[in-house]
Amino acid sequence: MDSCVEEMLDSYIGEGLGGVRVVGICGMGGMGKTTLAREIYRRISSKFEARSFIANIREETKNQGLVSLQKQLLSKILMESEINIWDVCEGINVIRNTLCNKNVFIILDDVDGDEQLEALAGKHDWFGPGSRIIVTSRDSHLLIRCGVDYIYIAKELNNDDALQLFSWKAFHKPHPEENYVNLSMDFVNYAKGLPLALKVLGSSLFAKRSNEWKSALYKLKKEEPNRKFLDILQIGFDGLTNLQKGLFLDIACFFKGENKDCKRDILESFCCSLDYDIGVLMDKSLITIDDYGTLWMHDLLQVMGQEIVRRESPKEPGGRSRLWIYDDVIHVLKNNSILDALKLMDLSDSQCLIEIPDLSGALKLKQLILRHCTRLYKIHTSLGDLKQLIQLDLNGCKCLEILPHKISLEALEIFDLGGCSRLKKFPEIVGNMLHLLKLCLSETAIKDLPLSMEHLTGLIKLDLRDYKNLSSLSNGCCCSKSLEILTLSGCSKLDTLPKNLGNIEGLEELDLSGTAITRLPLSVVHLKNLKRCYNPNRFTYLTIPRSEIPNWFRHQNVGASVNLQVPSHLLFSSKFMGIAVCIVYIFRQHHPLHQLHIHHFRGTICTHSLLCSVEANGFRYSPVWLPLMEEFGKIELYHLWLEYFPYKAHFERHHKEELDANEFTQIKVTFESFGPGLEVTKCGAHLIFEQDIKDLNQTKPGSSSCSITPYYEDDDLGDSEKDTKIKECRDDEATHPEWTKHPNLIEN
């Protein structure tokens, strides 16, 4: 490798010379073109004003398109995450105008089409003096046509370099063990100087005994003299466990170029130790994962994997374990072939697919993925009886109207109907589907959910986002005690929640934004695990069982009032949004209902109530009431009430002249309780600024490592004043709330 790099640097790259130079690296697959380019990039890229390595261009062009590659090129050079380009022509103009005066070093890896170079490095004058562009390709004629200045032909490694590369993989050092020298040379001779073959063979023999080496060598020798290169690569595959072999074949057939974490659910349904087994495949040089978590493998290894699957049934696709070629799938479906071996079928984005016929022969089918098949309207009733089906993904099938009337999918774990906008009826669930973990019905036209939803007792995530026809939830939806996430955002007709909502003991996140709900049912007190409630626009409070004020409340006090001293000008800053307040309260005494005075408050029956008022320099703003029933407090727990005062709805009504902008404003938050036995024990307040919301939007919900620094109201204080205030705060009060548009979020 060193000699190849030195030759490139001395005779082709022309370091330090003026002008723009485009250099091609050409050779067959497996020759180490990308490895050579990466090593050159590592050595000299820092000497340039800007740099970019664009990998897997052939594959990325198929999957993402040329515009995505143009954005990637500019993003890496300019160090900007957002690049606005709408078409290839615009991208060409942006690249030319942006880079024409910059000294850049760019590597374009695995180019196989003229249009790719024309879109990314069409002419020399796109780049500033001294720029260097390296293009790797298997097609020398392409490089000549596109005006490359110099072409380096990648050669097979000589015996010394080949033995060194093999030894690094087989022994983790540059030379073989003493007793393995002759065996190593035998394998090196079989690889014929091809770097990919040397890597795979060496990795497959690492830490193996000599008898295992001899067995592998015998297997190579018994192949026909004109054996294919793929047979050499298969030595690495043969050393895997069955689960690891299946994972490799899944990546080869379906998931090359996909993000590992985005496909984790699918991969884990076949491979229970996913991260470990992916590590094994990487150790054996069979796959790589880039900085973005994308799964990659050399295309020759992909061909080998697909060939292994094809050999399962050379003449009849229906006898293969995986189907990924559209024509093969159509052949199988049209001819109702026996599908005994089929485990995974992925027909995503098949625009000609209209109907899925009888699948009763696919008894071992575990994954059926039909994402964005936009003309698919009907699925055969046999689907409902696939006992081994783990994932059914119909997301984005916007013409789908007909599903089986009944389903009994005992093994199903993931069911995604999101975006099936014409689907009006959800199937009846026959028997217990205990394994279903995730159900997505977002953006569907389903009118009513069946009572049989109560059979989904293992459900963890239910997504009903933008379910426009949903006006009520059946009690059956609240039968899964294991449900952790319930998303109802955008269900604009939904105005009430089931009274048995409290049965969902495991509920942690409830999203009600964009609904017509104005209150939670009394049974919410049972939701002891509830951490986040995203509330709709008309619903600005939350009450849950909790005995402590959340740590992020900057100002806390024992009792029923808390005082804040704030620089007045901050209250009129465009960054100021409002005040969050909260209290802990408890029913100290309980009374029979007939002994209590029953009130009617805005259509709500109550026996007790709490009032929250905010004063600024003696001016009192409109108070907020919380009506309560003593039944609500029969469970002897402390409860937390959290309320939000938006700035525009409260403080902006008070004239600025009445608050001296050069002085501090004294804000007092007071809570009053009405009704026997109701007591306020603690209270807190926190000013909310625009930056708090921005920080939240950049923080994934559920992150336990949130370290957002809030915009505090004393940021504009003098140093001495600020030091005094900081000393008054506990250390744990500086943590930041994970806030929402209406900051009604509870989290300790």
Key terms:
disordered C terminus, globular, Rossmann fold, 748 residues, alpha/beta, 33 strands
Structure described in brief:
By secondary structure, this protein is α/β, with parallel strands linked by helices. The protein is 27% helix and 20% strand.
Protein described:
The chain is α/β, with parallel strands linked by helices and 748 residues long. Among the domains are: 2-153, 3-Layer(aba) Sandwich (Rossmann fold), CATH 3.40.50; 159-238; 242-308; 555-734, Jelly Rolls (Sandwich), CATH 2.60.120. The protein is built from 20 helices and 33 strands. A ten-stranded parallel sheet has the order 8-9-11-13-15-17-18-19-20-21. The chain has a five-stranded parallel sheet with strand order 2-3-4-1-5, sandwiched between helices. A five-stranded antiparallel sheet has the order 22-31-25-33-23. α12 (229-238) crosses α16. Residues 536-540 and 696-748 have low confidence and may be disordered.
Low-confidence stretches: 536-540, 696-748
Number of strands: 33
Helix- and strand-based class? Answer: alpha/beta
Q: Report the principal-axis shape.
A: globular
CATH architecture of the domain at 555-734: Sandwich
Tally of helical segments: 20
Q: Sheet with the most strands?
A: 10 strands, parallel
Estimate the mean pLDDT confidence.
80
Work out the helicity level: 25-40%
Gyration radius, rounded: 33 Å
For this structure, what is the CATH class of the domain at 555-734? Mainly Beta
- Strand order, sheet with most strands: 8-9-11-13-15-17-18-19-20-21
In CATH, the topology of the domain at 555-734 is named Jelly Rolls
Beta-strand fraction estimate: 15-25%
**How far apart are the first and last residues' alpha carbons, in Å?**
55 Å
